[in-house]
Prior knowledge:
CATH class: Mainly Beta
Distance between the termini: 26 Å
Shape: globular
Largest sheet: 22 strands, antiparallel, barrel
Helix content: under 10%
CATH topology: Maltoporin, Chain A
Radius of gyration: 24 Å
Structural class: mainly beta
Strand content: over 45%
Number of domains: 1
Amino acid sequence: xxxxxxxxxxxxxxxxxxxxxxxxxxxxxxxxSLTVIETYTDNVDLDSAQAEGDFITQxxxxxxxxxxxxRLDLNLNYTPNYxxxxxxxxxxxxxxxxxxxxxxSELSEDLFFVDASANVNQRYLDRRRAVSSVDGSRTLxxxxxxxxxVRPYLTHHFGSFADARLEANVRHVRSDDDExxxxxxxxxxxxxxxxxSLTVDSGSQFSRIGWSYSAYxxxxxxxxxxxxxxxxxxxxxxxxxxxxxSLLGSFGYENRDANSAFVQFDNVVWDAGFRxxxxxxxxxxxxxxxxxxxxxxxxxxxxxITPKAQLTVTYRDLLETYQTLEVIDAFVIDPFSGQIxxxxxxxxxxxxxxxxxWQVSLQGERGRTTYSLSGTNRRYSNEYATRDEERSxxxxxxxxxxxxxxxxxxxxxxxxxEYTYNLGTDDIPFFVPVDDKFWSAGANASYRxxxxxxxxxxxxxxxxxxxxxxxxxxxxxxxxxxxxxxx
Length: 487
């Protein structure tokens, strides 16, 4: 059984950060629940040479805590998932912790604030190994990754001229699943970052011209790799030509210090672009410049089709360590639902990587129907070229509330990856190109038995087809029934 107790150790500390603000009036809501799921699958062990069937019992107690007040906003969701595998050899059970926590507190009115975040989740270590669309299957390619972040900051208003913010930032990424990391061949190790920044933004007296000055320093200490430091300064400006169009630009200096020619950088940085707002439902921002070696650009476009439906298009270019990407992706806020969405880098290592990501998403509601459609293309350029990868994913979902008690949904996804795979050894490598296709589809029906009981029946099918990966190319079926009780 997994003995990971990290959620119990860190949770009181993070909640304690909000305690000074707790005395201020806030609406608190605590919702405990218990879910029991019984699943049959014909492919329970993803690492085995042949497909094996088994019944999986999952017991998932959950607690959700929300606080909403003038000086405190807090959201916590924690589930220790217990899995039991009756036909397994060796250990028959596992515990996998899932935690999402955010807190924003104002400790001194309009002066001193503290933001804290924590995320504990299961991640696949390498998409080139066994993966599944269902949590119930077992694999050594899955590990628990923990990300924690604390940001205390001070603010000051210089009348209508400018607003200043002085911030400290502490981030920690780790995994205690050392055996899984070793067996999966992952070099991902814990890292702690310390940083500070100063930002001064123009005040209300600037109408057509806006400006922002920033200076920053970050130091990331990695256990099994060299430290990574970056610092710089930047002046950002905007000029509003008319109600619809504004010109954007920035100029500054950045130093990236690491024992890697892939990331080493000491130069001027700049970009220029525009923001177009032709109406209340449309916004487009585009920037082009030099942020690393070579040209870079960014794009963010938004169109609200109806009050409950929107289309977004984004492009992101980042050069970071995998540990930093874990922190960034762990606390991404979905623009439609407003909830934390853990996108994940889907590959874990101690190296530097440059990711170029296109994402298009359509989400909405119409009456009793909810729908979503998204497409993502991400290119990984690693400091070690043999770890480069390009992945494209398309996913869709459709849900319908048939009655006040009955809801049904269907969903599906397809992922296509291109990378190289070592068929040799570390001493005598033999890399070959791989085309990897993974698709999954499912349906479920949920019925509310009473105010506190909800039952769900679900079916999921997945399959994989990859050249040079014969052991992973097999279909999987999952049939499950669950009941959730709000306590």
